[in-house]
Amino acid sequence: MTTASLADRTTAVAARATELSKIYGQGETQVVALDRVSIAFQQAELTAIMGPSGSGKSTLMHCVAGLDSFSSGSVRIGETELGSLKDKQLTRLRRDKIGFIFQAFNLLPTLSALENITLPMDIAGRKPDKQWLDTVIRMVGLSDRLSHRPSQLSGGQQQRVAVARALASRPDIIFGDEPTGNLDSRSGAEVLGFLRNSVRELGQTVVMVTHDPVAAAYADRVVFLADGRIVDEVYGPTADLVLDRMRNLPGGNPQTPEFDAKGRTS
Ligand SMILES: Nc1ncnc2c1ncn2[C@@H]1O[C@H](COP(=O)(O)OP(=O)(O)OP(=O)(O)O)[C@@H](O)[C@H]1O
Ligand SMILES: [Mg+2]
């Protein structure tokens, strides 16, 4: 990365949704999952998306990441308007510019940790940047586990492989849907620490969905959704501040069965 782009990235937008709506079904069964959502994700920022179950978090991420179609509005990744792309171009953009970390790690059981990390690049016929790959592997602490299969790794280690896989191709933006949802709090904290470091030290842009105020506190910004709309936003969050805001969301009272003590949905 050049000095100029380092300076630029404080203001540059990695992805943007404008008046984005997503409607499932028709007539009586119609669900408005996203209702004219406008949001920009700044480069080199970690954004957490929160909100009650069914508020549209996954839908927003999937639409912005080009994994799902939308009903109206527009989405840009960098300078590229997703709506203008043909299927093949969209597939290529996803492959080249976007990284994903899902709650279920989506690792291939027959491949080693290293092979899983480089798989997307292998499929794309691209050679990994060796130095970068070493940096990523060292950062997630997998140097001595590279030849292990997923079944020989702990849950936290598997999730770290998934994080390394998302970082390895240096995508413009990484999306995580509850990337630490399946981990105990210590492994979760580790993975969040790596994501945090990749933003701070490597300039990576990350957007993650979480139900956990402690996880959200790792972010630079927390965006709250309710009923398919952005209803609140916090910069420089602490877990207490996030919990407080969650209490005031429509349908987001932690006393209701929707949330347990940690703010996760039941
Ligand atoms: N394929 C689908 N068909 C119909 N409705 C859907 C579909 N996918 C999601 N929805 C609805 O859209 C709304 C938003 O769903 P979404 O998965 O984005 O919520 P979420 O905020 O990610 O919830 P959770 O925290 O439970 O993961 C919900 O009301 C859901 O029932
Ligand atoms: Mg979801």
Give a quick precis of the structure:
The protein is α/β, with parallel strands linked by helices. It has helices spanning 3-8, 57-64, 87-97, 113-124, 130-139, 155-168, 185-202, 213-216, 239-247; strands at 13-24, 31-42, 46-50, 72-77, 80-81, 98-101, 173-177, 206-209, 221-226, 229-235.
Provide the fold topology.
Elements: H1 3-8, E1 13-24, E2 31-42, E3 46-50, H2 57-64, E4 72-77, E5 80-81, H3 87-97, E6 98-101, H4 113-124, H5 130-139, H6 155-168, E7 173-177, H7 185-202, E8 206-209, H8 213-216, E9 221-226, E10 229-235, H9 239-247
Parallel strand pairs: 3-8, 3-9, 6-7, 7-8
Antiparallel strand pairs: 1-2, 1-4, 4-5, 9-10
The chain binds adenosine-5'-triphosphate and magnesium ion.
The site of adenosine-5'-triphosphate (ATP) has 13 residues, from strand 2 and helix 2.
Q: What can you see in these coordinates?
A:
This protein has 266 residues and is α/β, with parallel strands linked by helices. It has a domain at 44-57 and 96-252: Rossmann fold. It contains 9 helices and 10 strands. The protein has helices spanning 3-8, 57-64, 87-97, 113-124, 130-139, 155-168, 185-202, 213-216, 239-247, and strands spanning 13-24, 31-42, 46-50, 72-77, 80-81, 98-101, 173-177, 206-209, 221-226, 229-235. The chain has a 6-stranded mixed sheet, sandwiched between helices. A 4-stranded antiparallel sheet has the order 2-1-4-5, covered by helices on one side. The N and C termini lie far apart (43 Å). Adenosine-5'-triphosphate (ATP) binds at residues 24-25, 31, 33, 51, 53-59, 265. The site of adenosine-5'-triphosphate has 13 residues, from β2 and α2.
